[in-house]
Design brief:
The chain has 232 residues and is α/β, with parallel strands linked by helices. It contains 9 helices and 8 strands. It is globular. InterPro entries: AB_hydrolase_1, AB_hydrolase_fold, Sec-Metab_Biosynth_Hydrolase.
């Protein structure tokens, strides 16, 4: 008997749960209504993983975690919860034990690295006038401007937080690479996808905001992962 998992969506830096809006609508069109979107504080990997685990613990049954960008580090850390049955990475970090998103970024910086700036309180921002070209060049100017104005800045120290026990070592994983990503170098994405031995890797002609610009293709991958872990 198959058991379709609940889907928990985890956002990354400079975004919030609403970044998943187009995917949420597409999932509903396909009959997936047991869908949850975490709103993480972006204050530390430990804080964000704890908040995500709280949501996982509220779900009675299997859970498929889906992480975008830094949300990939969060699902890597939180995905060892016993009812998590799979992980889907959307242009996301998938660090190993003792590794941080910052280490991965420094090893192969993205094209828009210089467009990230700290404020006096230690939060990191994508410069608003550079957000469209950096984060979401395949969205309209208006769509990207809304993202720029509403961006949720992380504490800069979060970049350096290491994963402790990577869930992808014990859970099946799927990965979507954004070929035109200017926030996480596409070659880093390919390397991480290969290291976690993803069940399936897809590449999209997309910006970092593939969850917004390519919701049908992203949802295709999520639905395929959900069907696989359900035994369909």
């Amino acid at each position: 008997m198959s058991t379709i998992p609940a889907i928990v969506l985890v956002h990354g830096f400079w975004g919030g749960a609403a970044h998943w809006a187009n995917v949420i609508v597409e999932l509903r069109r396909r009959g997936y209504t047991d869908v949850h979107a975490v709103e993480n504080p972006l204050t530390s990997l430990a804080d964000d993983a704890a908040r995500t685990r709280q949501m996982i613990a509220q779900i009675d049954g299997p859970v498929l975690l889906v992480g975008h960008s830094y949300g990939g580090a969060v699902i890597t850390e939180a995905g060892t919860a016993p009812n998590v049955v799979g992980l889907v990475y959307i242009a996301a970090f998938a660090p190993d034990a003792g590794e941080s998103p910052g280490q991965i970024t420094e090893s192969n910086p993205p094209a828009a690295f210089e467009n990230i700036a700290p404020d006096s309180d230690g939060y990191l921002w994508v410069k608003p006038d550079k957000f469209h070209e950096s984060f979401a060049q395949d969205l309209t100017e208006d769509e990207a401007w809304v993202m720029a104005v509403t961006q949720k800045a992380p504490l800069g120290s979060t970049f350096g937080d290491n994963v402790t026990e990577p869930a992808w070592r014990t859970r099946p994983s799927w990965y979507q690479v954004s070929r035109d990503d200017r926030m996480i170098n596409p070659d880093n994405q390919r390397r991480m996808a290969g290291r976690l031995e993803a069940r399936k890797v897809i590449e999209l002609d997309a910006s970092h905001a593939s969850l917004a610009s390519k919701p049908v293709e992203v949802t295709d991958l999520i639905v395929e992962a959900a069907g696989t872990v359900a035994g369909n």
